[in-house]
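Backbone geometry tokens:
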Amino acid sequence: MQEFDYIVIGGGSGGSAVAGRLAVGGKHRVCVLEAGGRNNNVLVKTPGFMPFLLKNTNYRYDTVPQKGLNGRIGYQPRGKGLGGSSAINAMVYIRGNRWDYDNWAAMGCDGWGYDDVLPYFKKSESNERGGDDFHGGGGPLFVSDQTAVNPTSHAFVSSAESLQLRNNSDFNGAAQEGFGVYQVTQRKGERWSAARAYIEPLRGSDNLAIMTGTLVEKLVIENGRVTGVAIRRGRKRETIKATAGVILSAGAFNSPQIMMASGIGPAAHLRDHGIDVVQDKPAVGSNLQDHIDYVSSWQTESKDPIGDSLAGTARMAKAIIEHRRKRTGIMTTPYAEAGGFWQVMPDAPAPDVQWHFVPAMLEDHGREKVKGHGFSLHACVLRPESRGTVRLNSADTRDAPRLDPNFLDDERDIAVMRAGVRLSHRIAEASPLADYAPQDRHPVDLQDDAALDEMIRNRADTVYHPVGTCRMGSDSDSVVDTKLRVRGVDGLWIADASVMPKIVSGNTNAPSIMIGERCADFILNG
């Protein structure tokens, strides 16, 4: 039996951070278990190949039929392999709003206010603009300005400004509100995943074992303590031992799945699947929150946007060659090049809608091919009130979990979305973006609430930010305490987006890395 001090389950954003920090210095024997591969190929490293990653390096989960989406089944891509979703995402570097973390503290998560978490964001970050009061300049996660921004992305920002929507060059600085071009997790024109930041620099170290292609079947729990992990590698099953503890970082879907498969979760549900109950914990797999997103799309005669045409294909072919030679050009695009944050409801404590501008026409998460050129504008509800669940389809972790985000169940969410979509159209109809003479691909009477709501329910889906299924709190019902220790089981921590008590107002990659940084600090320093 192999033995380590710490075993980290999952090599994604949180898992990479916690594993790297525990292993650095050589004092602790650390093992990372990852079901996918190394993710070290050209498709992963080249930002412009991101659409292919949504079809490959990816679990490609589906939801149960969503009542709030007119019975449609939603698509839930999640990264598979080292780096997790940071290896397939749009690389947008956003932390959320100051209010989010102060609200966590107000909800009982002592020590998680904005001033508490900011040092860990800075510790993780190496921003090419340098360090300052809000940014780190020497961390492992490289954050860069884009170098090949599409003309339509600049036009989008200018159109927002023409509507008196302020320009913002730093969404992670003093204020989040405004519109601008996003910074991205790239280094020298390549994707910089959490694994490249924290794990790959330590590859070959005597005290770090990286086990890819390894499925976790369950935690080994003896006398109320997690002592190891039961794994499957191909046809071989074995157990590896953890003398100091296990950190679960499998994400908002798979962390609760592994917990429930190990006997920690809602007792009746576990018994339905023939699982012995170690601890009845109804909060495991509950409190699922995700950013519901609506994509407006317009077609243009202009070939400026990225598109499927003879000219567009020739341009991309040249761009691939340029990127292989120089790591420059339009293959450095994150696709979600620009965006913004704005408050659309008068009682919101902070911006309540985020926009992602894509200089290409997007349908069904990029799975539907669209001929021609144009642009898309995502509007997502930043702090949804709807809550869903993650449950088991079977006790076998090879099977996908049962995902029910319960999108748009709360009427407050569709009210925010409605206002966000209307603002999307106002921006698209303002110059200079309007100078492209964009043709709406999904026209609707924007003043007709019922018609707009029907369009939203027919087309909205996730923007890939599930959180909350192993929530942190100071109450006894919470899954982890404020030091990320699982309540009622010794030797087990959780370090990923599942611990968020409430979703943050923005992309979740950077916050997940911050959580991993904090977990390592709690383990090492108490």
Q: What stands out?
A: The mean pLDDT is 97.
